[in-house]
Fold this sequence. Notes:
disordered N terminus; 44% strand; mainly beta; 9 strands; 4-stranded antiparallel β-sheet; elongated; 1 helix; 3-stranded antiparallel β-sheet
Amino acid sequence: MRDSGSQDKAQIKVYLNEDAKSGDKVEFKYTDPDDHTQTKTDTYELTDQDIGKGVFEYSLDINARSAYDLNVETTLITPNGLASKVYSNDLHLNVRNYTINYDENSTMRGGEGSADTLVVDNKVVDFSYHC
């Protein structure tokens, strides 16, 4: 897995087994980056070019802005609906320090639920102040 240059996507490389055929679908089930108790599903249909190379690349929304445990499962599904799990793995995603530029027109992502934490100079900033 490698960073695709976008904060929200990571490029993965999928190696195909000898049973894969053009028209088969590869289903990805992975940890939802916005709600780590849920799963997201994406599907990719294999082409003749993918089969010829034996590999293809795909972008998953893993939101590596916050650290979490990522589970990824892939399943190969034939046009007749026969499914076989090909791969399953758990990874822990760590993040590097980064700077957030404030933009009043965008939605910020990260944290757990409605409780985000901001740390400045190794001190937690308390957002609980009430007027």
